[in-house]
Amino acid sequence: MQYERHLTWSILLRLxxxxxxxxxxxxxxxxxxxxxxxxxxxxxxGNISYPMSDIRFIHFIAGFVFTGAMLIRIFLIxxxxxxxxxxxxLPLHPTGIKNLFQTIxxxxxxxxxxxxxxxxxxxxxxxxxxxxxxALMQIISGFYMLYPESPFWMGxxxxxxxxxxxxxxxxxxxxxxxxxxxxxxxxxxxxxxVYSKEGLISSIFNGVKYTxxxx
Length: 215
Ligand code: HEM
Hints:
This protein has 215 residues and is mostly helical. The chain is 69% helix and 5% strand. The longest helix has 33 residues, at 164-196.
């Protein structure tokens, strides 16, 4: 079969993806440590070793990278290429709704083939919207804890999340989404790469996807 080559993801989208992915891994590992440290208090401050301060510092740096990645994604939602804008990846129109059901049936092994769609399928898009909203909450709760003296973050954090303790609890709870989501995401990407032959995994490195040329 002949395939057509399409530049699908811009450099900015790929930069966002890797900033987001690598910061999430760092934030989950350091977040788990902050929540329940696995070193003893004897280490803390003794012999110029400060594991908790070091881990918190790494968490905050990764938090800024994560926030930067989200700002890039918000920009692309409005100003990215066709595949990167929210209208394309959400089931907000008849084609998107049809694609959602086709994808569910395809992934459930009920329907063998489905119509090609260059960007995200709308099932993936819907899960990205949830991730996007959880990420916003994570940023608000993170900065609420980081700058408790700032009127801006106190205002937004207090209004949207309640007390600092609630902010911390929701921040911790949302971490579980960021532990489960990457596992399902990677599984489905590998599955897709095997069954769909559109070059999904390589596309997040080189931006290129393929469609059958008779399409
Ligand atoms: C995927 C994103 C993130 C994950 C999974 C995550 C995870 C966590 C976890 C599990 C904790 C410990 C909470 C507890 O004590 O129970 C924590 C604490 C914290 N996180 Fe995050 N976090 C993320 C993003 C952010 C962001 C964007 C910021 C903003 C800078 C941030 C700032 C903080 C702060 C300030 C604390 C409290 C540290 C302390 O008081 O010791 N986090 N994070």
